[in-house]
Amino acid sequence: MATTRNIPEYDRKSELKAFDDSKSGVKGLLDGGMTKIPLMFIHPRYNPDAKSESAVSQFRVPLIDLDGVKDNATVRAKIIDQVRGACENWGFFQVVNHGIPASVLEEMIDGIRGFHEQDTQMKKEFYTRDFKDKVSFVSNFDLFEATAATWKDSLSWPMVPNPPDPTEFPAVCRDIVTEYSKQVKRLGYTLFELLSEGLGLHVNHLKDTGCAEVIFHVGHYYPPCPEPELTLGASRHADSGFLTVLLQDQVGGLQVLHQNQWIDLVPMPGALVINVGFSLQVITNDRFKSIEHRVLANRVSSRVSMASAFGTTLFPSSKLYSPIKELLTQENPPKYKEATLQAHVAYLRGKRV
User: Fold this and answer.
1) Per residue in 287-326, pLDDT tens?
2) Are 227 and 43 in contact (CB under 8 A)?
3) What residues does 247 pair with on adjacent strands?
4) Keyword Oxidoreductase on this protein (predicted)?
5) Which of 275, 222, 269 has its CA nearest to residue 246?
6) What domains, with CATH codes, occur in the chain?
7) Is residue 94 within a helix (H) or strand (E), and if so which, with residue range?
């Protein structure tokens, strides 16, 4: 476990409210000259159930080359096997030659960094916890529910099916978000085709099920932390949607829990990280696994990432889901009853506590 500072009794609710009312996020704390992190951010850094706290092991998250996936049947069949194996055994993989130009990736990272590093007064215009707003800046979506806050700020927006008007985006990243979103949507559709075929289903099965009805983007910013041993950039969690496409800079810090060990997901220039969400785990009857992951804080430099989550709805829905019937057999009966995705996610998260 991490070494912790002695924590006196204090009014946590007041600290949370004052932080939220500042509308300045974690970056604002640093800009104000803070040298010790507020108590609300302090929590155990490492999972006591993990065999190792170092993330040093022989394991490496799978890397899949998508070159030829559209025009070479033999190559496509090989890629489908690789994607299926990664989803069954890891829940995570990286892709290269995915079709999104390096210039677009770089400009998206620069746009998110530019937003978070601009003058605080400019950012405050977007600060809100009403996520029905099309474009919102906030620090810690679950600030008032989590046991400890995490060391990051986020800019988020939905892009499918009802994108914001371009004028609603911050000027610093306005031009790139539409292009990047278009490119990620195309890649996501390709991935769902590969996943469908990997399951032995029709190529459009997952898309037709509604797995990509909504695409929600979040640009995270993790400032340097003066006491990284006391907090996390993102706490241990698994994603709730069907699939997430993650663009990250080259700083590092993302870790995946594999065979009860924390594995560093080392950034690779031009690569995108893909991971399975709880919703996909449910409808594949646990064939594809949604794996827990976290982000470490660091003292040296800021980290930027851009997550694009594919799902069916941003808000609670009454639509019911259960495992895909074509995947079920007498030897492989359904592991989940028909329920809303919110109920499925709550059940799976409860199992992992």
Assistant:
1) 999 999 999 999 999 999 999 999 987 656 788 999 999 9
2) no
3) 306
4) yes
5) 275
6) 49-351 (2.60.120.330)
7) strand 92-96
Say what the pTM is: 0.93
Residue with tokens 């799976």: 348
Q: Which residues of 248-281 are buried (b: 16+ CB within 10 A; e: fewer)?
A: bbeebbbbbbbeebbbbbebeeebbbbbbbbbbb
For 157, the token pair is: 């927006």
Tokens read off for 154 = 């986020």
Q: What is the pLDDT of residues 53-92, one digit of tens each?
A: 444 567 899 999 999 999 999 999 999 999 999 999 999 9
Torsion of CA 50, 53, 55, 59, to 10 degrees: -40
The rounded Cα 35 to chain-centroid distance in angstroms is: 28
Q: How far apart are CA 144 and CA 347, in angstroms?
A: 21
Output b/e per residue, 18-33; b: 16+ Cβ within 10 A.
ebbeebbbbbbbbeee
